[in-house]
Amino acid sequence: MHQFIAVTTHRVPVHTPPELNDSIRRRTERTVRLYSAAGREAIDQRLEELDAEWDIERTLEANAATVSLAGWLLGATVSRKLFILPAAVAAFLLQHAIQGWCPPVRLFRRLGFRTAAEIAEERFALKALRGDFAGIQADPEPSGEDAVAAADI
Protein backbone atom coordinates (compact mmCIF):
# COMPACT_ATOMS: atom_id res chain seq x y z
CA MET A 1 0.00 0.00 0.00
CA HIS A 2 1.29 3.46 -0.90
CA GLN A 3 1.89 5.67 2.12
CA PHE A 4 1.13 9.39 1.98
CA ILE A 5 4.19 10.16 4.10
CA ALA A 6 7.07 8.20 2.62
CA VAL A 7 9.78 6.51 4.67
CA THR A 8 12.77 8.87 4.61
CA THR A 9 15.42 6.42 3.43
CA HIS A 10 13.35 5.12 0.52
CA ARG A 11 11.29 8.11 -0.55
CA VAL A 12 13.35 9.11 -3.59
CA PRO A 13 13.92 5.61 -5.04
CA VAL A 14 10.22 4.80 -4.58
CA HIS A 15 9.36 7.81 -6.74
CA THR A 16 12.05 7.15 -9.32
CA PRO A 17 11.32 4.94 -12.33
CA PRO A 18 12.83 1.47 -11.80
CA GLU A 19 15.02 1.79 -14.89
CA LEU A 20 16.69 4.90 -13.43
CA ASN A 21 17.22 3.18 -10.07
CA ASP A 22 18.74 0.20 -11.91
CA SER A 23 20.98 2.45 -13.98
CA ILE A 24 22.29 4.20 -10.86
CA ARG A 25 22.84 0.85 -9.11
CA ARG A 26 24.69 -0.60 -12.11
CA ARG A 27 26.89 2.48 -12.37
CA THR A 28 27.81 2.13 -8.70
CA GLU A 29 28.58 -1.57 -9.14
CA ARG A 30 30.80 -0.82 -12.17
CA THR A 31 32.66 1.82 -10.19
CA VAL A 32 33.28 -0.56 -7.29
CA ARG A 33 34.50 -3.27 -9.67
CA LEU A 34 36.83 -0.79 -11.37
CA TYR A 35 38.32 0.36 -8.07
CA SER A 36 38.63 -3.19 -6.73
CA ALA A 37 41.55 -3.68 -9.14
CA ALA A 38 42.93 -0.14 -8.93
CA GLY A 39 44.66 -0.28 -5.56
CA ARG A 40 44.52 1.56 -2.27
CA GLU A 41 45.55 5.00 -3.57
CA ALA A 42 42.81 4.97 -6.19
CA ILE A 43 40.25 3.89 -3.58
CA ASP A 44 41.43 6.69 -1.26
CA GLN A 45 40.99 9.20 -4.09
CA ARG A 46 37.52 7.86 -4.93
CA LEU A 47 36.48 8.13 -1.28
CA GLU A 48 37.54 11.79 -1.35
CA GLU A 49 35.44 12.27 -4.48
CA LEU A 50 32.47 10.70 -2.70
CA ASP A 51 32.94 13.15 0.18
CA ALA A 52 32.42 15.98 -2.31
CA GLU A 53 29.53 14.39 -4.24
CA TRP A 54 26.24 16.20 -3.93
CA ASP A 55 23.35 13.91 -3.09
CA ILE A 56 19.91 14.54 -4.53
CA GLU A 57 18.65 16.25 -1.36
CA ARG A 58 21.41 18.86 -1.48
CA THR A 59 20.84 19.32 -5.20
CA LEU A 60 17.11 19.84 -4.70
CA GLU A 61 17.75 22.32 -1.88
CA ALA A 62 20.17 24.34 -4.02
CA ASN A 63 17.77 24.23 -6.97
CA ALA A 64 14.84 25.34 -4.82
CA ALA A 65 16.82 28.19 -3.28
CA THR A 66 18.04 29.38 -6.69
CA VAL A 67 14.58 29.33 -8.29
CA SER A 68 13.02 30.94 -5.21
CA LEU A 69 15.55 33.77 -5.17
CA ALA A 70 15.18 34.29 -8.92
CA GLY A 71 11.38 34.33 -8.57
CA TRP A 72 11.56 36.78 -5.72
CA LEU A 73 13.93 39.06 -7.66
CA LEU A 74 11.79 38.86 -10.82
CA GLY A 75 8.62 39.43 -8.81
CA ALA A 76 10.12 42.53 -7.22
CA THR A 77 11.56 43.99 -10.42
CA VAL A 78 9.59 42.68 -13.41
CA SER A 79 6.07 41.62 -12.45
CA ARG A 80 4.38 40.80 -9.17
CA LYS A 81 2.86 37.78 -10.93
CA LEU A 82 6.29 36.15 -10.83
CA PHE A 83 6.03 35.81 -7.05
CA ILE A 84 4.21 32.60 -7.97
CA LEU A 85 7.63 30.99 -8.59
CA PRO A 86 8.84 31.01 -4.97
CA ALA A 87 5.38 29.91 -3.83
CA ALA A 88 5.40 26.97 -6.27
CA VAL A 89 8.93 26.02 -5.23
CA ALA A 90 7.92 26.05 -1.55
CA ALA A 91 4.92 23.83 -2.31
CA PHE A 92 7.06 21.36 -4.29
CA LEU A 93 9.73 21.32 -1.58
CA LEU A 94 7.07 20.54 1.02
CA GLN A 95 5.69 17.80 -1.23
CA HIS A 96 9.20 16.35 -1.54
CA ALA A 97 9.72 16.47 2.23
CA ILE A 98 6.47 14.58 2.80
CA GLN A 99 6.33 12.19 -0.15
CA GLY A 100 9.82 12.16 -1.66
CA TRP A 101 8.67 13.44 -5.00
CA CYS A 102 8.69 16.77 -6.77
CA PRO A 103 9.06 17.66 -10.46
CA PRO A 104 12.89 18.00 -10.53
CA VAL A 105 13.50 14.58 -8.91
CA ARG A 106 13.16 12.64 -12.15
CA LEU A 107 15.44 15.07 -14.00
CA PHE A 108 18.12 14.97 -11.31
CA ARG A 109 17.92 11.17 -11.07
CA ARG A 110 18.26 10.95 -14.85
CA LEU A 111 21.36 13.14 -14.53
CA GLY A 112 22.72 10.56 -12.06
CA PHE A 113 22.25 12.27 -8.72
CA ARG A 114 22.13 9.64 -5.99
CA THR A 115 20.61 9.54 -2.55
CA ALA A 116 22.89 9.77 0.48
CA ALA A 117 22.21 6.06 1.11
CA GLU A 118 23.30 5.15 -2.43
CA ILE A 119 26.52 7.13 -2.01
CA ALA A 120 27.08 5.47 1.38
CA GLU A 121 26.70 2.00 -0.20
CA GLU A 122 29.55 2.75 -2.59
CA ARG A 123 31.64 4.20 0.25
CA PHE A 124 31.07 1.08 2.37
CA ALA A 125 31.98 -1.26 -0.50
CA LEU A 126 35.19 0.68 -1.22
CA LYS A 127 36.17 0.69 2.45
CA ALA A 128 35.59 -3.06 2.58
CA LEU A 129 37.82 -3.50 -0.49
CA ARG A 130 40.45 -1.32 1.14
CA GLY A 131 40.39 -3.59 4.18
CA ASP A 132 38.96 -1.15 6.71
CA PHE A 133 36.88 -3.88 8.34
CA ALA A 134 39.49 -6.65 8.32
CA GLY A 135 40.13 -6.46 12.07
CA ILE A 136 36.48 -6.62 13.07
CA GLN A 137 35.53 -9.95 14.61
CA ALA A 138 31.97 -11.11 15.02
CA ASP A 139 31.13 -12.08 18.59
CA PRO A 140 29.22 -15.35 18.16
CA GLU A 141 27.36 -15.08 21.47
CA PRO A 142 27.10 -12.02 23.68
CA SER A 143 27.93 -12.68 27.31
CA GLY A 144 27.21 -10.94 30.59
CA GLU A 145 26.00 -7.37 30.27
CA ASP A 146 26.06 -7.62 26.45
CA ALA A 147 23.49 -10.46 26.57
CA VAL A 148 21.23 -8.44 28.89
CA ALA A 149 21.52 -5.35 26.65
CA ALA A 150 20.78 -7.41 23.53
CA ALA A 151 17.70 -8.93 25.21
CA ASP A 152 16.38 -5.45 26.04
CA ILE A 153 16.44 -4.46 22.38
Structure description:
By secondary structure, this protein is mainly α. The chain folds into two domains: 12-53 and 115-131, no CATH class; 55-113. It contains eight helices and no strands. The protein is elongated.
Summarize the structure.
By secondary structure, the chain is mainly alpha-helical. The chain has eight helices and no strands. Helix 3 runs antiparallel to helix 7 (116-130) and helix 4 packs antiparallel against helix 5 (84-99).
List the helices and strands and how they pair.
Layout: H1 11-14, H2 18-36, H3 40-52, H4 56-77, H5 84-99, H6 103-110, H7 116-130, H8 145-152
Key traits:
elongated, 2 domains, 153 residues, mainly alpha, 8 helices, single chain
Q: Provide a count of the helices.
A: 8
Largest sheet: none
Overall, the morphology is elongated
Return the domain count. 2
What is the residue-mean pLDDT, rounded to a whole number?
88
Helix and strand sequence: HHHHHHHH
